[in-house]
Amino acid sequence: MDVFAKDSFHYFGTLDVKLGRLFGDFGYRYVFYLRMCQAGGLRKLLFTLPRKHLSRKCGLEISPATQIGAGFYIGHPYGITVNAGSKLGRNVNIHKGCTIGQENRGHRKGVPTIGDRVYLGINSTVVGKVTIGNDVFIASNAFVNQDIPDHSIVIGNPCTVIKTDNATEGYIINLV
């Protein structure tokens, strides 16, 4: 199963990649364009302009150079920034106003690495050379600048970590 089918399954619960879906959901459309640009060659040439147009329209700053696993989901695709050096695992859900950014000084100088099955709520921010584990729920408006272990819920600013099994259950569906 290719990455396009996995992204489609994560969005819609089916493996079918249908052209009609591109017109119904800006988030899915952007992920599709992004994957086409990541594929390189003629696909990159054909889909760079539509990706950039949608990027400007929605305020999405996600570079095709970013390493993103299958099952990437953008909910409410507006005002999202992901540093090009960041690494995102499989089944990552990101929402309106999120920032995954670089820290330029101190012991956390660098960019985040985000694991599998991670939910980033509205306006959440993850910065610096931190590692976010698997099965992590980052609540809306949380500010994360420290490593987060697997199976955790993160809330607040400064962030508070609550260990829990199945932290993203019910929030991330159609896993690939």
TrEMBL record:
Keyword Acetylation: no
This protein's name: Serine acetyltransferase
PROSITE patterns for the chain: HEXAPEP_TRANSFERASES (PS00101)
Assigned keywords, A-Z: Acyltransferase, Repeat, Transferase
Lineage: Bacteria, Bacillati, Actinomycetota, Coriobacteriia, Coriobacteriales
Species the sequence originates in: Paratractidigestivibacter faecalis
Family: Belongs to the transferase hexapeptide repeat family.
Coiled-coil ranges per UniProt: none
